[in-house]
Every structure is written in C-alpha cells, then in structure tokens.
Amino acid sequence: MTLQGRELILGVGGGISAYKSADLLRRLQDVGFVVSVMPTRASLNFVGAATWEALSGQPVAVNLWNKVHEVPHIKAARSAHVMVIAPATADLIAKIANGICDDLLTNTISASSTPIILVPAMHPEMWGNPSTVENVAKLRSRGHLVIEPDEGRMTGDDFGVGRYPEVSRIISEISSFLELKSDFQGKKVLITAGGTREAIDAVRYIGNISSGKQGYSLAKAARNRGAEVVLISANTNLSPIAGVRTIDVTSTSEMRAALATEFASCDALFMAAAVADARPKTNNEGKIKKADLKSIELELNPDLIAEISTLAKTSQVLIAFAAETGDLDLAAAKAKLVQKGAQLLYLNNVSKGAIFGSDRTSGFIIDGNSLQIECPDQNKDTLSDLLLDQVRVKLG
After folding, report:
1. What CA–CA distance (Å, rounded) separates 92 from 126?
2. What is residue 237's DSSP assignment?
3. 334-347 confidence digits (pLDDT tens)
4. How far apart are CA 199 and CA 250, in angstroms?
5. SS3 of 239, please?
6. Residue 97, pLDDT above cutoff 60
7. Is there a catalytic annotation at residue 129?
8. Domains of the chain
9. Which of 79, 85, 126 lies closest to 103 in space, CA to CA?
10. How distant is the alpha carbon of residue 6 from its chain centre?
11. Which of 123, 308, 362, 376 has the most Cβ atoms closer than 10 angstroms to its Cβ?
C-alpha cells in the first residue's frame, strides 16, 4: 500500500491502559506519522486532552457537536490515511462492529474508508466473552486489523490474555499491515523548493516560474518514509506539509544562509529549487520610475550546490536538478553533475512550458558512473520515491 501521506487518527478508548497510548503516539511519530488524537469522553477520565495535545502538537476534538457547520466527522475521516484505535475496549469494538455511531470517534470511523487498526485491551473475561469474540471476527472479516492482546498482569491481581500489547509489536504489525517503508528513519533530509527572486526595486524582481511542486512532493515522500525533513521553500503558493519543518525564503542569499545553517546535520540534500542565476548589482529601496528603467546591470549569483558540496562529508548525498530546453544532452548533464559535486542529478526538458507548475514530470536520473534511469511521463510523487530509492543506495 502506498500512502500519499501519513496523517493518522489515534482513537483512544475508555480503559485504564489509555496511558500506554501516549508511548504508542510517540512511536507512531517516529515512523513518520502525523498523529491527531480523538479520545472518547470516557477515556478522558484516564488521560486528559491537554496531554494528547502536548504530545501530538495537534488540537484534540471530542465533541461531535462542535463546529457542526464543518461536519467534523466527515472532515476528519477524509483527512486521515489510517485510523488506530488503542485501547479498543469491548464497548468500542461492539460499536464499530455493529455500526453504532454515538460520538465523534465512532461517527468518524463509520465515515472512513481508510485502513482501521484496533488494539484491544480489557480483562480476560471480557476478551473471551462470546459477544466480543463474534465482534472481533466480524471486524476481521471486513479487512480491519485487530491486533491480538498480550498475556500478563492486569489491574489488581488479575492475569490472563487481554493486556495492552507491547508498543514495539504494535508498530511492527501496523507497518506490516500497511506495507509501509520506513527506510529513512533516523535520517535527516534537506530539500529546497520553489524559485528564488532577486529584487530590482520595491515592487519588481527577477525570478522564474518554478511552482515548488517537485520539492514539496519530495518532502512529503521523505517524511512518509520516516525521515526528519527540513524544507527550504522559496516563493511558493503551496500549503505547509504536516510533519515537515519549513523555512521560508525569498532570495538566493536567504536560501544560501538557510543551507549554511542546516546542511551540516543532514544526510541528503535535494536542490530542487530553481535558483535565479543572476541578480541586480544594485537594489533600489523605492520604486524606479518607468522612464528610468532602461537597463539593469546584473551580477551572477553563487552556484549554491557547487558551493555547499565543498563542505560535504563523504557520508552526505547531494542531488542536483537540471531543467533544459531542446534535446537533452546526457553527457553534458553528467559533466554538470561532476562540476557541482553532486552524486545524483535529475535532468528534465521544460520546453514549451512543460514540467514547471505541473503535477507530472519526465526526464533522466543519472550519477557520475553508469547509472541512467529514464523516467517517462509520471507523477512527481512517483519520481520522488524513485529518487529516494537511489539516495538510499548511495547512503548504503
């Protein structure tokens, strides 16, 4: 299963083991999920909303009747890519199995078409109750994952099957069920996106038509594969990506400064931004009168990736991007790759307005050796994963 994102709703049932879901939330974040918590009212007797908001960094919704005009259960169901219910009490399991919707969480589950994973935790007598056994079988027959509880100590002196599973096993079973890649867990990926602008005066600038879509797609893909992602974004109209730290810049010099701060700690740098080649030698603080706007004296901007590559450690991977018009010259592109000190380069043809601003792309992935992968017309999300696959190889 390929997820376009990892927005996850963690539903928390009203059992004593609700406190264990705090650790589960952290581990879900570690593998790249952006977690919003949706507790039942009963569960708030064990863990309060403030705890969930502090741990998740997201607001907590409980009341189905708040912001009714936004239809909150439908909105939440459409935004989530997966739902995990932990702990799933006997009561919650019965409601989900039989389509009972009496609060925000059960209404959201009913409205959702995403994978649903349940983590039962209850006393052994309740887990073995014929109704619970029948309800669990019903949920599994619908394709939901119901993780078997552990055997062990319960509240008081009780002992048996029904204990909240070890969090490591929960994560393992979720990853297997969703077929998730987390091969960039523990890695930091730095990405530039958009197009830099160089001010001519207070209202005019030199720029380009890069939309930033490829860089944002890379950021999302790297996040989805478990990486810590920092996105240096220049002049895009794209929405921020949850779980990605974004640094907004305008000019090449601002991007250069952000790279200087972030590069040393990254494992891979994708220079997907279209950096303005030149800038005016002088910048007027006011607006230049039209009659005086006869010529602009320019100077070259620094080649940011060539510059940063001189500081690179052997363990770091640099990926350059080249947009050309006309026939693509792979030999010249390989020479450019070496000149810039990059390990990989994506070359594409932007003739007649292609690629820029589009959700699709086509081109070649090359390295300084014999690698040459043709990428026929495809979604930028697909290319992002192909590039990450090649970076994974370079990282060893």
Report:
1. 12
2. -
3. 898 999 999 999 99
4. 9
5. coil
6. yes
7. no
8. 7-178 (3.40.50.1950), 188-395 (3.40.50.10300)
9. 85
10. 6
11. 308
